[in-house]
């Protein structure tokens, strides 16, 4: 063990830490020795920090990062030179950026190649385990730009492997960050034959590419089918999304057939990449939503019927997507590139310590998300990893959209570069995320929060203003929003109906606004209403939830529905159910039988939205020219839409106060607050919490 420690912090700078327990006097000189040369170090500064003396030294020379070097002091004591802050310099990024797309394992029947990017490793080995459990350790060779490689002759399909690196005085074992298959719980990566992967049979459903034309429905693979009320053959698994003819007790459609019948365009799946917080070999032991990234390119094995088979998890997820495509439903993948679950276990920390994460001015890891160490998307090889991962899912699994968790922590350049690459591949893939403005060492001017929307091209943001205004404050449970009867902030309500893009209220375009009142996070609307309106009847709460849902569907922007919202899903008052039980999180399909008319209500609103372009305007100028929103003294909204072909009036009413509306022209009531209608009138009496839609004759 060394008496002192040394770190290469730049290409000409070494920092040396000398504990006072080793020596209290001043060190006269240091030198670095390695690669058959000796280089004297110039001491630039020294300072006492607690019980250690910190020396900053400079040198004239070039140190090869994949070679061993040692620091000698004036007593001939030595310290292995570790790589320090140099890995976070721009020059390092420029020198060691590797742009090729061949990282990971590449299988052919007569050979397999392995490539891994790890510029600071002094040696790299491959640990290869055959199908009988025999292990072989094989040396890898250094190529260039930080890449190590190995070419093995023979057929290695189905072999498990891990890498072994020697970095900063330690040997590390870790899985392949570019692997696409693994054993249970991310213990080993697999060599697989891609020709044996399920071939998707169905094309992506036709879609305009305009986010305004999307109707997004969020669900969780396990939640959707684990409840006994569904009686699925594969409860909680990918395969449950391919099961058809599932019904409720009363014979109403349930499971996949229910989704297929709603009229939505996109199904957003909570994370389906490999995540921590569950035991894939014991699937009922723990529960998790999936926001704990471990392997970004491997499907989660918790949802697989066989998490230890190298192909099953891949094939079952592809079959899920394929079946949704077959039935004209697109798929959005929820991705988490803002943090990692375990900052030690994440392979990049073994590959190149200190590179993958963000650090504060004191050199400490930051946790801006509150969920784990912040991923440094701005570094070139992390940016490449993110983009490579998304493009892999888009191409291999035909994913039709990507929802970015805590996108406000990801840098702008990464998001725009990704958007450009996706457009070159398929220009109808939608991208949106949580654009919260969150503190990070990168600074607000470089991150993808909603207040930088003018710097982000064709990328949407969850509109928390919509949620807070319609539902009420998330963190003040008793505070009511418009749908719960509030008459406050009516100007905000008006702007929300206009897609938050009128007069640059929040966004530049309605397509940037993902409109929602509930999602997997926080209280569902029903639970919030029960808490905020303790004296309200169940029927009143349902009316208010219908109102909120109708405003989400009919406002300008992109409607987003949380699974079960339409039939009053409850989480029993649990505000943050990310690791709660199935009892709290699972979809109770019996609720359909109790609320079938409310589901038909939603289906009709969706049909109307998809029929009339006026609900899906893209340009702010069209919103200004074609729409007028008025709110009267009773808080009732008159939402008027007009173009050359149609003239519509939508009435949103949040009170039981009786009102009469008279119109200059005759209108057909196409939605009467409950269902489709064909009543012709120029006068309407409204005395309930409701939504009406009228069309001029």
What's this model, at a glance?
The protein has 697 residues and is of the alpha+beta class.
The helix content is: 10-25%
What's the total helix number?
15
CATH class of the largest domain: Alpha Beta
What is the residue-averaged pLDDT?
96
Low-pLDDT segments: none
CATH topology of the largest domain: TIM Barrel
User: Strand content of the residues, in percent?
Assistant: 25-35%
* Largest sheet report: 8 strands, parallel, barrel
Q: Helices and strands: which structural class?
A: alpha+beta
Please state how the strands of the largest beta sheet are arranged side by side: 17-18-21-22-23-24-25-26
Question: What is the oligomeric state here?
Answer: single chain
- General shape: elongated
Description of the molecule:
The chain is 21% helix and 27% strand. It has an 8-stranded parallel barrel. The protein is α+β, with helices and mostly antiparallel strands. 48% of the residues are buried. The protein has 4 domains: 5-83, Immunoglobulin-like; 93-174, Immunoglobulin-like (Sandwich), CATH 2.60.40; 211-616, Glycosidases (TIM Barrel, Alpha-Beta Barrel); 624-696, Sandwich (Immunoglobulin-like).
């Amino acid at each position: 063990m060394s008496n002192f420690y040394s770190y290469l912090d730049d290409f000409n700078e070494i920092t040396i830490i000398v504990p006072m327990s080793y020596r209290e006097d001043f060190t006269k000189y240091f030198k670095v020795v390695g690669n058959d040369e000796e280089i004297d170090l110039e001491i630039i500064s020294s300072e006492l920090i607690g019980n250690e003396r910190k020396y900053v030294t400079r040198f004239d020379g070039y140190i090869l990062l994949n070679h061993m070097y040692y620091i000698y002091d004036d007593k001939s004591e030595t310290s292995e030179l570790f790589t320090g802050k140099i890995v976070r310099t721009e020059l390092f990024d420029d020198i060691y950026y590797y742009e090729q797309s061949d990282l990971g394992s590449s299988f052919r029947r007569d050979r397999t190649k392995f490539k891994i990017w790890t510029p600071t490793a002094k040696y790299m080995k491959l640990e290869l385990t055959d199908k009988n459990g025999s292990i072989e350790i094989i040396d890898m060779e250094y190529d260039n730009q930080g890449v190590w490689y190995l070419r093995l002759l023979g057929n290695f399909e189905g072999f498990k492997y891990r890498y072994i690196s020697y970095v900063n005085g330690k040997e590390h074992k870790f899985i392949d960050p570019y692997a696409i298959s693994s054993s249970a719980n991310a213990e080993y990566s697999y060599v697989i034959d891609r020709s044996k992967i399920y071939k998707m049979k169905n094309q992506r459903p036709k879609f305009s590419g305009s986010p305004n034309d999307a109707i997004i429905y969020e669900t969780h693979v396990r939640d959707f089918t684990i409840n006994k009320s569904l009686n699925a053959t594969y409860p909680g698994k990918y395969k449950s999304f391919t099961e058809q003819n599932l019904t409720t007790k009363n014979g109403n459609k349930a499971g996949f057939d229910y989704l297929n019948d709603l009229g939505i365009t996109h199904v957003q799946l909570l994370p389906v990449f490999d995540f921590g917080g569950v035991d894939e070999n014991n699937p009922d032991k723990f529960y998790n939503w999936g926001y704990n990234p471990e392997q970004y390119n491997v499907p989660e094995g918790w949802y697989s019927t066989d998490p230890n088979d190298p192909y099953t998890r891949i094939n079952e997820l592809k079959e899920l997507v394929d079946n949704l495509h077959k039935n004209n439903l697109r798929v959005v993948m929820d991705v988490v590139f803002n943090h990692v679950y375990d900052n030690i276990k994440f392979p990049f920390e073994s590959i190149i310590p200190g590179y993958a994460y963000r650090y504060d001015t004191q050199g400490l890891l930051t946790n801006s998300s509150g969920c784990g160490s912040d991923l440094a998307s701005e570094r070139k090889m992390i940016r490449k990893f993110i983009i490579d991962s998304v493009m892999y899912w888009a191409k291999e699994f035909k994913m039709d959209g990507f929802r970015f968790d805590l996108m406000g922590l990801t840098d702008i350049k990464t998001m725009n570069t990704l958007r450009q690459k996706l457009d070159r591949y398929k220009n109808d893939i939608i991208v949106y995320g949580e654009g919260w403005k969150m503190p990070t060492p990168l600074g607000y001017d470089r991150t993808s929060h909603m207040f930088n929307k003018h710097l982000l091209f064709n990328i949407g943001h969850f509109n928390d203003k919509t949620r807070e205004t319609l539902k009420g404050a998330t963190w003040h449970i008793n505070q009511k929003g418009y749908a719960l009867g509030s008459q406050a902030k009516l100007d905000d309500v008006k702007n929300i109906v206009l897609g938050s893009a009128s007069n640059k209220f929040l966004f530049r375009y309605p397509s940037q606004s993902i409109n929602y009142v509930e999602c997997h996070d926080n209280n569902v609307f029903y639970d919030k209403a029960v808490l905020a309106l303790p004296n309200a009847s169940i029927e009143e709460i349902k009316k208010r939830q219908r109102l909120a849902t109708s405003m989400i569907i009919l406002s300008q922007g992109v409607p987003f529905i949380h699974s079960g919202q339409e039939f009053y899903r409850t989480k029993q008052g649990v505000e943050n159910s990310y690791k709660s039980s199935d009892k709290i999180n699972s979809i109770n399909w019996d609720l359909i039988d109790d609320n079938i008319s409310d589901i038909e209500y939603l289906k009709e609103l969706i049909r109307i939205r998809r029929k009339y372009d006026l609900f899906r305007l893209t340009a702010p100028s069209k919103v200004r020219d074609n729409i007028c929103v008025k709110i009267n003294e009773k808080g009732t909204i008159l939402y008027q839409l007009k173009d050359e072909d149609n003239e519509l009036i939508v009435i949103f009413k949040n009170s039981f106060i009786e009102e009469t509306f008279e119109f200059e022209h005759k209108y057909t009531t196409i939605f009467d607050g409950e269902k489709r209608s064909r009543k012709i009138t120029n006068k309407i009496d409204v005395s309930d919490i409701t939504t009406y839609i009228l069309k001029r004759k």
